[in-house]
Design goal:
alpha/beta; two-stranded antiparallel sheet; Arc Repressor Mutant, subunit A; Rossmann fold
Length: 213
C-alpha cells in the first residue's frame, strides 16, 4: 500500500500545530463556535501577539480560517474547519434544554436554524431577533416547505421575549452576536452568511446547517 507523501506532510502539519498546548486551547475554544482573536485572547488570558502567532500556525495547517464581520468590517472572526478535525467531536454541553437561535431580523437564519435543529435532534428549539422584522422572509418559508421543515408558527419575536433561564442561546448572525452585550448574551456564536443577500444556491446549502448539531 502506497501513501502519498503530500498527505503525510499535511497530516504531520496538523499534528504539529496541535502539539502546542496554547494552540490546542485555541482549537478547543473554537470547537463550539466562532470567535474574534480578541475574544480568544480574553478567554484564554493570552497576549494578543501570541494569539496572532498561534492563529497563523493553525491557519497554515488548514485548521482555522478567518472571516470578516458583516457588521463591523474592521473585525474578523476565526472559524474552525471541521473537515480537518473530522475525528474530533465537540465537547459535551451538560444540562442543555431548549436551544434559541438568534439573528438580527428573525426572518431567515434563526428561523431555519431552529427548524432544522428540531428536525435533526427532535429537541426543543426557538428563534428570535435583536431587531425582528414584521414577518418571516418568503424565501425562508419556501425553503422550509421544500425540505419539509416546520417553521415556528408564532412568527418573529424579540430576543428578550423568547429567551428563558437555562436556554442555550446561539447567535447565527455577526450583528446579533455583537449587539447582545446586555443581560442576554449568546453562549455560542455560529457565523452564518445572510441567505437574503445571496443566491438561491446559498439557500439550498443553508439546509446543511446548523453545522455543529
Amino acid at each position: 500500500m502506497s501513501i502519498e507523501p503530500s498527505s503525510l506532510t499535511d497530516r504531520a502539519r496538523v499534528h504539529a500545530a496541535l502539539g502546542d498546548p496554547a494552540r490546542l486551547a485555541i482549537v478547543d475554544a473554537l470547537t463550539l463556535g466562532d470567535a474574534s482573536p480578541g475574544e480568544i485572547a480574553h478567554a484564554l488570558d493570552m497576549p494578543t501577539n501570541l494569539v496572532a502567532h498561534h492563529v497563523k500556525v493553525l491557519t497554515e495547517a488548514g485548521l482555522v480560517v478567518r472571516t470578516r464581520s458583516e457588521g463591523d468590517r474592521r473585525r474578523t472572526y476565526l472559524r474552525l474547519l471541521p473537515e480537518t478535525l473530522a475525528t474530533l467531536g465537540a465537547p459535551p454541553l451538560p444540562g442543555v434544554g431548549r436551544v434559541v437561535f438568534v439573528c438580527t431580523h428573525n426572518s431567515a437564519r434563526s428561523q431555519l436554524a431552529a427548524a432544522l435543529w428540531r428536525h435533526r435532534t427532535h429537541g426543543p428549539a426557538a428563534s428570535a431577533g435583536t431587531r425582528p422584522a414584521a414577518r418571516v422572509h418568503p424565501r425562508a418559508i419556501a425553503v422550509a416547505h421544500r425540505h419539509r421543515l416546520d417553521l415556528d408558527p408564532t412568527g418573529t419575536a424579540h430576543v428578550t421575549d423568547v429567551v428563558r433561564d437555562g436556554d442555550l442561546v446561539i447567535a447565527v448572525c455577526d450583528n446579533a452576536h455583537e449587539d447582545l452585550t446586555g443581560p442576554v448574551r449568546p453562549r455560542l456564536h455560529w457565523s452564518v452568511p445572510d441567505p437574503v443577500r445571496v443566491d438561491t444556491d446559498q439557500w439550498r446549502r443553508g439546509r446543511t446547517g446548523p453545522r455543529r448539531s
